[in-house]
Amino acid sequence: MTEPLLPSREPPSDRRPVVGYTMVAVAATLFGINGPVSKVALSSGLSSLRLTEARSAGAFIALTAIALVRAPSSLRVKRGELPRLALFGIVGVAFVQLFYFLAIHRLPVGIALLIQYIGPVLVAIYARTFGHEHVRRRIWLALALSLTGLALMVQLWSGVTLDGLGVTYALIAAVVFAGYLLLAEHEMKSREAIPLLAWAFFFALVFWTIVQPWWSFPASAAARTVSLQGHLSSHHLPVWALVLWVIVLGSALPFTLIVGALRHITATQVGVTAMLEPVVATIVAWVWLRESLSAAQLVGAAVVLCGIGLAQTAR
């Protein structure tokens, strides 16, 4: 799954835009590759819930370690902040990952990501209608483009050729993604990004531990060896190695790069550049997993990308 972005608190004086764009491009590429890797891991029989739980645990450990090295005091919170952080972690982090994993289990990775990326369009609409913010009129064009592109991707004229439940999961992921962005924007007014993410993943982990305790984790599934599918079907890896990729190269490292990039470029620039993720995911899934899109779906994907781009610059 694409991972959500956080707005910066204040513009530093030592901006280096080239460095910022490079960091986001690398992060988006890692996130894009993470989709196919996650899909292969899920094919082993490991459930979407368990993969989400494992990713939350790994990301919490990595981000907490980074925060402790940088500034241990940044992790301190007041008691009154805990309910908001819990909401942010459970709804904004746990559910975004869960519904993304559920979606890619039934849909091509690129399409699932593109549907989820409608979230920023919803954020801009919310800001305009409920937040009374000044939002450029282009947001309505962005919405029209996104919906048109979505219609092309699911091929409505022929009776929705995509898995209906998968599309539903992806749309829920888009709504939850929008909620994540709005919650993050509010919390970033008083907290730095890495400690905020550390607390978010902590509460996500607590939630999943209650829902499905760690002592019932299917260790046998993690130890199982699975085919890498597609053009790599003759190669096999243990499931734990794929999960480790999802945690380290699909979560901790790209998250750190995204946060670091916010020192050099604005959140809007980060968001637009991060649109490289569904493009990379689609290409990797095509080359690796032999997932293919029709001409109409490719056109729809391009139209959705245009809509997302407009939405990112509308606020």
Question: Can you characterise this structure?
Answer:
Helix content is 69%, strand content 2%. It is mainly α. The protein has one domain. It has a two-stranded antiparallel ribbon. A hairpin with an 8-residue loop joins strand 1 and strand 2. Helix 1 packs antiparallel against helix 10 (239-261), helix 2 (48-70) crosses helix 3 (82-104) and helix 5 (119-129) runs parallel beside helix 13. The longest helix has 26 residues, at 17-42. It is globular and about 50 Å long. The chain starts with 16 loop residues before the first helix and ends with a helix. 49% of the residues are buried. The model has no long low-confidence stretch (mean pLDDT 80).
**Overall 3D geometry?**
globular
| Mean pLDDT across residues | 80
- Estimate the strand proportion: under 5%
Q: Report the C-alpha radius of gyration, rounded.
A: 19 Å
**Percent of residues in helices:** 55-70%
The end-to-end span amounts to 24 Å
Total number of distinct structural domains: 1
Order of helices and strands: HHHHHHHHHEEHHHH
Low-confidence stretches: none
Number of helices: 13
Structural class: mainly alpha
Question: Layout of helices and strands, plus pairs?
Answer:
Blueprint: H1 17-42, H2 48-70, H3 82-104, H4 109-116, H5 119-129, H6 138-154, H7 164-187, H8 193-211, H9 219-223, E1 225-227, E2 236-238, H10 239-261, H11 267-273, H12 276-289, H13 295-312
